[in-house]
Specification:
This protein is of the alpha/beta class. The protein is built from four helices and six strands. Strands 1-6-2-3-4-5 form a six-stranded mixed beta sheet.
């Protein structure tokens, strides 16, 4: 998503950070900031980290910040999807609304931080559809508002053009374009693979 900027994006592993960050914040913003600050402290570099999740209306906003651990940690994509669909089994079609949220936190070596949020509304499908992406189980059941296909039935480019993460990173990218220090910098991405 940042490939056309004059910024080298490397993974935290490539930056020499092998420890996992404990995501114990109460909001997406707290978790994104915690991850970004954790990596920045160890690298002294600019860092971008995000925290994302799905908030399902009929489940009072669950799983929310617990999306990665929904139904118990270590579940496979299929197990998470089936757990979610089972929770939604008796929910009427017009009550299956959901909100996907992504917060991207950017930290500078001097400790300054910026927050960029992206959201997209949609609904939960009644069955799993599409090709799963690694670590993104909800793509198989989330249908963006105004669309008929799940994220998992879309190409990466189509999904990124409208997704919560795509929207957050589009805001981040626009900000980086006007930030003079970013003429040619290295940025560490908190995720295990480059953005």
């Amino acid at each position: 998503m940042l490939k056309d900027l004059k910024v080298e994006v490397i993974s935290m592993e490539e930056a020499g950070v092998k420890d996992e960050v404990v995501e114990d914040g109460n909001t997406f913003e707290e978790n994104a900031l915690k991850k970004a600050r954790f990596v920045a402290k160890r690298t002294g570099e600019w860092v971008v980290a995000d925290d994302s999740g799905i908030c399902i209306d009929a489940l009072d906003g669950a799983p929310g910040i617990y999306s990665a651990r929904w139904g118990g940690g270590g579940k496979s994509t299929e197990e998470v999807v089936q757990f979610t669909l089972a929770k939604m089994k008796n929910v009427a079609d017009n009550k299956r609304g959901a909100l996907f949220v992504s917060v991207a936190a950017l930290t500078a070596p001097d400790g300054r931080v910026w927050i960029f949020m992206g959201e997209i509304r949609g609904q939960i499908a009644t069955e799993s559809r599409g090709t799963p992406r690694p670590h993104l189980p909800y793509d198989l059941v989330f249908i963006p508002k105004g669309r008929t296909r799940t994220f998992a039935e879309m190409s990466d480019a189509e999904k990124n053009s409208m997704s919560h993460r795509g929207r957050a990173f589009a805001k981040l990218k626009e900000y980086l374009k006007i930030l003079p220090v970013f003429s040619a910098q290295t940025m560490v991405d908190q995720q295990s693979a480059a953005v």
